[in-house]
Amino acid sequence: SQQGEEDPQALSIQEGENATMNCSYKTSINNLQWYRQNSGRGLVHLILIRSNEREKHSGRLRVTLDTSKKSSSLLITASRAADTASYFCASDNNNDMRFGAGTRLTVKP
Amino acid sequence: NAGVTQTPKFQVLKTGQSMTLQCAQDMNHEYMSWYRQDPGMGLRLIHYSVGAGITDQGEVPNGYNVSRSTTEDFPLRLLSAAPSQTSVYFCASMGLAGAVGELFFGEGSRLTVL
Cβ–Cβ of B106/A102 closer than 8 Å? Predict the structure, then answer.
């Protein structure tokens, strides 16, 4: 069974808009990570938030973590056409990494 | 920097055939893992290893074998391929020396079982 669930499954926005993706997970975690996957390629690590952190920023990315609700969100600000990809969250429970089904983001120029 | 290298990139098998997907990393990472990705689904963990000589099962281990004789290599074996094993397979590695780590992925191996 999938450890995490991303929401929404698909998101389509215009360039310059913000994109928000949500992730829920099931077990306790050491950290939660977000990855990006361009079509047909491997995953690329974006950002990691530890279980004792509530918010983290990296460039145009902002991640929040609510361990009481077992949920996380990824915000991409000022989106670009090049941000078009699938985004996955991965929960890390003692190096047992489980991925959600992903959010497919399309950014229209 | 080679990173994580998977071979082959594409493979077509007939039901019942066997094959090995190769994975090698040059980052001296202790942790290596195999995932499969099916349409509309995220990655599901097949097997993983936290060091040479140590392997463990993930979510979907049935039909797959692994071994870890060296730090660098983590091959995935299909002993008798089935159509349900048609998927894209990703190998990943991660260093365990630090408190937390990120996974580094290979480019994937697309397997079709007829």
Answer: no
